[in-house]
Design goal:
The structure is a homodimer.
Chain A: H1 2-9, H2 16-23, E1 27-31, E2 36-38, E3 46-60, E4 66-72, E5 77-78, H3 81-86, E6 92-106, H4 107-116, H5 118-144, H6 147-157, H7 159-164, H8 167-174, H9 178-182
Helix pairs in contact in A: 4-5
Chain A binds a DNA duplex through helix 9.
Pfam families (chains A, B): cNMP_binding
InterPro entries (chains A, B): cNMP-bd_dom (IPR000595), cNMP-bd_dom_sf (IPR018490), RmlC-like_jellyroll (IPR014710)
Domain Cyclic nucleotide-binding (chains A, B): 29-106
DNA sequence: GGCGCGGTGTGATTTTTGTCACAAATTAAT
DNA sequence: ATTAATTTGTGACAAAAATCACACCGCGCC
């Protein structure tokens, strides 16, 4: 839980008392590999802060294909946010890929936290703002880059994810087939780079 | 300016005094068709609230192709948000497509407004949150739907935009060529739908 | 320590979409 | 109103990526 405090303090300083108050809103949960945190159709009670472990959030289309919206590692937040904020049934699935420990925050808890502590409202605004700009970047990438370029960009943005996650899932994230990804070979090192 | 108040009050009620205070942070600007509000490379001083008029925000890739990130009509917010929040040079261009009147808000003004008035922090959080979920939806659409499906979805989500904006720009938004879009013909009305 | 399953690489082929070229239609500008 | 500019449609063709099929690898699990 200390890490959650550090995580919050990357955005805003927070006193011991305040943090003691904040922590009361969270509940801890252990999750094993292959376990679903959210299944399509579920009511989405919580958003999750990942203390450790790995998850993927994916959408299953009408043809049964999976499309990954997000990988989540330690220190990141995760939910089906549309379903969470609007309290509708989930369209996403969230599955554990490496044994994990997460902290759960209900919508009510989150909104009370934000309205009680201006600091926390600010914190959540900053978090969603950076998520927003990151998603804009991803949209631009999907619109303007070919599979090789997207894969290379992904590798340089998220080297830790590339190491920990099977390539087939990265293909699902990039919107290309696993075969196409498999045929992307590292660019030849040019002589001039000796 | 009355509309801005209505717009804010869709999220949170606000007193006369508060709104008087809020309005002092904005400056008004008229923009003519074809005029750039933001050009790639610029420092992005403001975000803009559109009182009336139409804009598009687009990215130009290395091959000179344009990719549209956002259309903005009346009552919406617009900027190159990455460049705005992180105060880096713009990667986007924002161009006026129909004569417009906008209200400008600098980053300093925005952050002061948010820290002075918890209400406004809440307002901005809610706005960016709904933008975030809308963008997630768009990413899923880019990953999982073919051009026809994306175009039909776009038409049902944004009928007003389809009416007001040339199709070539919609193609640039959907990530397909204008020719492909032009070859998408309305689905045949099935007999059973008489 | 063998067995099974999930993951990966690769060839052959098909499908989808982009590109190029040009004409027609629509809209804007003087 | 006429002229210019922008937008749209469509055919022929090329390019990119998906799909299908199959072999093989590697690791976890009894």
């Amino acid at each position: 839980m200390e890490n959650l405090r550090k995580h919050i303090e990357e955005i805003t300083p927070i006193s011991d008392d305040e943090f003691e108050y904040v922590r009361t809103f969270f509940t801890k949960k252990r999750v094993r590999k292959h376990q679903f945190l959210i299944q399509a159709g579920d009511r989405v009670a919580c958003e999750y802060w990942i203390a450790n472990g790995v998850f993927r959030a994916f959408y299953v289309d009408d043809g049964g294909r999976e499309h990954i919206l997000q990988f989540a590692l330690e220190n990141s937040w995760l939910s089906d946010y549309h379903a969470f904020f609007y309290q509708t049934g989930a369209n996403m699935n969230v599955v554990c890929m490496e044994e994990a420990e997460v902290f759960c925050l209900t919508l009510l808890a989150r909104e009370k936290l934000a309205s009680d502590l201006h600091k926390m409202e600010h914190f959540f605004r900053m978090k969603v703002t950076s998520g927003y700009t990151a998603q804009q970047h991803r949209i631009i990438s999907l619109l303007s880059r070919n599979p090789r370029e997207r894969y290379e960009e992904f590798g340089s943005l998220f080297p830790d994810i590339v190491k920990r996650i099977p390539k087939k899932y990265i293909a699902e994230y990039l919107g290309i087939s696993r075969e196409t990804l498999s045929r992307i070979h590292p660019a030849h090192r040019r002589r001039s780079l000796n």
